From TrEMBL:
One of its GO terms (molecular function) is ATP binding. It comes from the Bacteria. Belongs to the ABC transporter superfamily. InterPro entries: AAA+_ATPase, ABC_transporter-like_ATP-bd, ABC_transporter-like_CS, ABC_transporter_ATP-binding, ABC_transprt_ATP-bd_su_PQQ, P-loop_NTPase. Pfam families: ABC_tran (PF00005). The lineage of its organism: Bacteria, Pseudomonadati, Pseudomonadota, Betaproteobacteria, Burkholderiales. This is ATP-binding cassette domain-containing protein.
């Protein structure tokens, strides 16, 4: 689903991504675990076409971001760390606007919006402005928006920042459903070790380099630690 080869991104003399290479198969919940400043957000900005990397290439579903970005991006849904909803529009208007940007026919967008909103418990609030919503419900709206065009790869960048434990759990459960029901590949970037403990696969990123790659148990063994948290802290201190 995703193949990254020799990806390098610099900010002046600082190297944010250092010849990063990895591949992710279709389906599964993959956690990109790294401390603040590890390069997670920079990687997501390259994956979504906001930055063109200095070196290397990214392929999504076999399509190069350098030579075929439009078709590659059509396979991607994204929830960025910073919220990006129009606060003065209702939930319904935010979602409909995005569906129109994606070129979805009106009957398709109505069905998908209703289905996803019901699944995430948003139907009763569809006419409320986003400004009135809790942080957890705003995140749910962003997730619904990202799923409307049925992406194969869903990118989640520190998506639980500021959420209470219940909202965080509901968001994670919803993504696990996407993996099981539709075979979506989720790449979840976080610095919270607890969010990686039940992942299918964990990628540990530190200073732009990949330190470990495998199941939580394999990563714990590779980095050395009694727990995944201890191993992560030991490797990235």
């Amino acid at each position: 689903m995703l193949k990254i080869h020799g990806l390098t991104q610099r900010y002046g003399t600082r190297i944010a991504l250092d010849a990063l290479s990895l591949s992710i198969a279709r389906g599964g919940f993959v956690v990109l675990l790294g401390p603040n400043g590890a390069g997670k957000s920079t990687l997501f900005q390259v994956l979504t076409g906001l930055f063109a990397a200095d070196e290397g290439d990214v392929k999504v579903a076999g399509l190069s971001m350098r030579t075929d970005a439009r078709r590659a991006l059509a396979h991607i849904g994204v929830v960025f760390q910073q919220q990006s909803l129009d606060l003065d529009l209702s939930i319904a208007r935010n979602l409909q606007f995005h569906a129109e940007l994606q070129g979805l026919p009106s009957h398709v967008s109505r069905e998908r919006i209703a289905f996803e909103a019901a699944r995430f418990g948003l139907m009763a609030d569809m006419q409320r402005s986003v400004r009135e919503l809790s942080g957890g419900n705003r995140r749910k709206v962003e997730l619904v928006r990202a799923l409307l065009h049925r992406p194969d790869l869903l990118l989640m960048d520190e998506a639980t920042v500021g959420l209470d434990p219940r909202s965080r759990r509901e968001l994670l459960d919803g993504l696990q459903d996407e993996v099981r029901q539709r075979g979506v590949t989720v790449l979840w970037a976080t610095h919270r070790v607890s969010e990686a403990e039940h992942a299918d696969r964990v990628l540990v990123l530190h200073r732009g380099r990949l330190l470990a790659n495998g199941s939580p148990a394999e990563v714990k063994a590779a980095l050395g630690g009694a727990t995944l948290e201890a191993a992560f802290l030991n490797a990235t201190r």
